[in-house]
Specification:
This protein is an alpha/beta fold. The chain has 2 domains: 2-118 and 251-302, Periplasmic binding protein-like II (D-Maltodextrin-Binding Protein, domain 2, 3-Layer(aba) Sandwich); 120-247 and 314-331, Periplasmic binding protein-like II (D-Maltodextrin-Binding Protein, domain 2, 3-Layer(aba) Sandwich), CATH 3.40.190. It has 14 helices and 10 strands. The chain has helices at 2-13, 32-44, 55-65, 79-87, 97-102, 158-171, 173-185, 195-204, 214-222, 263-273, 276-285, 299-302, 314-318, 321-331, and strands spanning 21-26, 47-52, 73-76, 91-92, 115-127, 150-151, 209-213, 235-238, 249-257, 289-290. Strands 1, 2, 3, 4, 5, 6, 7, 8, 9 and 10 form a 10-stranded mixed sheet that branches.
């Protein structure tokens, strides 16, 4: 902590003209984020003020506030959402050498308007009692051999949109449309609920194979999750596409508000998020993966093992999200 404090004080000294606060609009709602803010203030003397809400609500708020907005930082939990902020014109360039150096290039915006601070993988989970040969790729989910077995969230969910957007980027629109139709034809039931509900469906027997972000499963090792923890040994998992593109990942992303009154403080805060202590708090708070190399994920995440991740630029994937929704609609994917 002493080394962290020294590093952050140095950052603060480098920008003596800044005000003594930073105002954060965040769609993250995890208890460990409180410790992040407290540690940052203790190290730099910069007070943290925050508003938490759904990302789309916060983006609309930034738009309506315009030049009078007090916001310095926007935090979202999916690249699709941070791209909405970029498209709305409510972000400014990060201009952070630390972010450029510490975060893999594919987790940056091409225009330097946002950066990922944690990652999450979208996995295939299955009922080990009923499925002896689980699909090893996202593409295999469309194989008719899995008819009547698959459960997913709705097509409007941002995680499902990002996944299909990545398939568009890798395989093209025609293949993506065939995939969406094939998965729809393999439904065990119409899409309903969140990722935890898909995993519960494996325990209840309603589903045999589901898609879920990894942390919805990993957190059931750390805390009691009703309808999941008690039967978690029944569930197996696959990191998809290990022989090809790698498992699809997404981010928790941050950007500096366009009209930030404390832009230097905002940049200091973002660089703080990339320090080892902050990365550990961020990742452990939601069982995500750190973006900075050399930092171990939570114990529950470590149970999943190592894997090859997709290294496609998320900015390119996000550009396909609108088309992904159109494809889902065209094939009747609810």
């Amino acid at each position: 902590m002493r080394k962290l404090a020294c590093a952050l004080v140095a950052l603060a000294i480098a920008t003596p003209a800044m005000a003594n606060e930073v105002n954060i609009y965040s769609s993250r709602h995890y208890d460990t984020d409180d410790a992040l803010y407290e540690n940052f203030t203790a190290a730099t003397g910069i007070a943290v003020n925050r508003i938490e809400d759904d990302a789309d609500v916060l983006i609309e708020r930034l738009k309506s506030e315009g030049e009078l907005s007090p916001a310095d930082i926007l935090v979202t939990v999916d690249v699709g959402r941070i791209i909405r902020a970029e498209d709305a014109g409510v972000l400014q360039k990060l201009q952070s050498e630390a972010a450029d150096a510490k975060v893999p290039a594919e987790l940056h915006d091409d225009a330097d308007l946002w950066v990922g601070v944690t990652t999450r993988a979208r996995l295939i989970f299955y009922d080990k009692n009923d499925v002896t040969e689980p699909p090893q790729t996202y593409e295999a989910l469309a194989d008719p051999r899995y008819k009547g077995m698959i459960c997913t969230r709705s097509s409007s969910n941002v995680y499902m949109l990002s996944l299909l957007a990545s398939i568009i980027e890798h395989d093209g629109e025609e293949a993506a449309k065939a995939w969406a139709e094939g998965v729809k034809n393999n439904f065990a039931r119409d899409p309903v609920g969140g990722d935890t509900d898909q995993l519960r469906g494996l325990i209840s027997g309603e589903c045999d194979i589901v898609l879920s972000n990894h942390y919805y499963y990993a957190r059931a090792f750390r805390q009691e999750v009703e309808g999941l923890t008690d039967g978690i040994e029944q569930i197996g998992w696959v990191f998809p596409n290990q022989e090809t593109t790698g498992a699809h990942i997404n981010i928790s992303g941050v950007g500096i508000a366009k009209y930030s009154p404390n832009a230097d403080n905002a940049r200091t805060f973002i660089e703080y998020l990339l320090t080892p202590d902050a990365q550990k708090l961020l990742a452990d708070g939601n069982d995500e993966f750190p973006v900075v190399a050399g930092i171990e994920p939570s114990e529950g995440v470590q149970k999943l093992g190592d894997f090859k991740r997709d290294q496609v630029a998320l900015a390119a994937v996000a550009n396909n999200v609108a088309r992904a929704q159109e494809i889902y609609n065209e094939v009747g994917y609810k």
